[in-house]
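<purpose> Linking amino acid order to shape
<body> The protein record starts here
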Amino acid sequence: MNTLEQLKQYTTVVADTGDFESIAQYKPQDATTNPSLILQSALDPKYKSLFDDSVVYAKAAGGDEKKKLVAGMQKLFVNFGLEILKIVPGRVSTEVDARLSFRIYDTVFYAKNLIRLYEKSGIGRERVLIKVAATWEGIKAAEILEKEGIRTNLTLLFSLTQAIACANANVTLISPFVGRILDWYKRERGVDSIPAHEDPGVLSVHEIYNYYKKFNFQTEVMGASFRNTGEIKELAGCDLLTISPQLLSELENSSEPLERKLSPEKAEKSHHQRIDLDEMSFRWNLNENPMAVEKLSEGIRRFSDDIRQLEKYFLKQF
């Protein structure tokens, strides 16, 4: 077996892309998108029909320009999700507008509109994960959605503090961002590389996974945002890993033996103590982690910027 096939024995592999051809090639169980990936794909001529359909939908939505724009963007994200679901047997993750990351009820309303669009197209909510930034407000919004049967994927997650709050809220899945943590520590230490087994992003996912399994939390852990295959190999056994087409290709073309690094049995022996969090302790603990604060804020800004770029392109079609 190649390395990718070995990885699939221990971990559910998810494609991190908006490109349908890549998804079909690597046969992942699930797929995830974000505004940056949608922006890259939406401007590709081969996906023009999906964009055009969302423009028609927006024009028919009624209301002022802002209302039409919101409707059109939601339809665009769902259009991509619908095409992905024709390829993957499992779930697709679709993101809420990052500019709502500090608004609980606006996030809930936006998420429900996404689910409504999926259900109108014949897709049950069990095949959709709503992606929300792991701010305190995002986690509280996800808690509301989960109680209403809408499954969530908490993204831009960089710390155990965020992960514990997500587990307490009974969210379906979290996406700790491995590569972005590595980027921060490389810059902080003034180095060009860090060995995979010492990679702070990898170690963060180990810590979260072990905490969840030791205390029997049902929330799934999906490592995300990888910079190299070494990070992926060090997380073999994680519940899920969402991987870019480039790194999927590298794994597929490798025959290197793969060792399982994470398991519930190993987690049982971990050192963790149960941690209780309320809003004040969440905010304090997060504030004490400069990497997590910086990367969370940066991630929200990046996704917001990409949405604005999409909106500018969208408005030209009106």
Observations:
- The mean pLDDT is 95.
- The chain has 15 helices and eight strands.
